[in-house]
Amino acid sequence: MQTLESFAELEVEELQKEQLLRSFSENERHNSARILRNDKELISFCCNDYFGLSQHPVVKQAAIEATEKYGIGSGASRYISGNHPYYDLLEKKLAAYKGTEAALVFGSGYLANIGTIPALVGKGDLIIADKLAHACLLDGAKLSGAKLLRFKHNDIEACRRILETHRQDYQKCLIITETIFSMDGDRAPVSELATIAKQHDSWLLTDDAHGIGVLEPHPEVPLQIGTLSKGLGSYGGYLCASQKVIDYVRNKARSAIFSTALPPATVAAAIASLEILEKEPERAENALENAQYFTKLMGLEQAQSTIVPYIVGDERTALDLAKKLEEAGFLVSAIRPPTVPKGTARLRFTFSSEHSRDSIENLSRILQTRTR
Ligand SMILES: *Cc1c(COP(=O)(O)O)cnc(C)c1O
To answer: How far is the first Cα of the chain from the last one, in angstroms, to the nearest whole number?
Structure first.
């Protein structure tokens, strides 16, 4: 007989052997580009807080005031009594920002995806997803029960071929992509996908988790999901869509209905962040320019976003390199399967408006000497 403990122990040993074991280390973040770990200050190139908003005094103040006014927890789901006044304001602002009629805020980006997708499609329907689409998009697809087909990453023709061959065999059809791919940093051909979706009587859903601020909004996309937890520096997720779609999804998305509302502070902070992002577009420009400065120094293809992958291949090399960089004062994440396909383990660098040119030069110099 296998006990629960021996089962868990064997599984962990297996992960350890494959260099895939994950654990937490304690971090203190007092600044958007720096992290204190084991009493050592490191320059972080692994936070998704691209514009320094999680540490912005105005954003912090908004959260403090909301807490003073309404307390910490929201007390219930939004459908019962948790719908504090900040929600309505944030949803209006998100919709205006994205160019849609309405928005629905969820507990996180993950919850937005696993709630929205099954609300829209199910058995007898088809989902066509980019091969590199984020785990939560695929989890949403699986939960829905719809048939899932994948197309080669960013390959419009591959998507079109699937539509031409299979669309007619299903009722509804949802096409799914990220706007900026979280582990590769490249941009999806969003406008082209919107066009072929229309031609084939299909609906396009984009996940803009890493695009806000950096990418122009795409109002032609009928289903725009995103997160409040990255560039906006707070926590939560959202769907922007037409009023009719939002009214429907609000009534169907189980991850919205059966989960407690976000804390007032979190929603108030997201409002403050969005206002700053709109007033100070140079934050996003600087973050992107910092990424492009790095790719230029490294002789890599020009960054299309604030995310730059540095693919090394195997897990061991990625971990070793991340460790060496940490010893040199830089915190960088080694990304391994199953987050990325096997054989493409990598370092993933994220750039923020808060990085100095000096620190980017140092990083690139050290990376070049360590990999030579
Ligand atoms: C991070 C991420 C999410 C999840 O958003 P959370 O708010 O962190 O739950 C969803 N989609 C993509 C593409 C992401 O990178």
So the answer is: 51
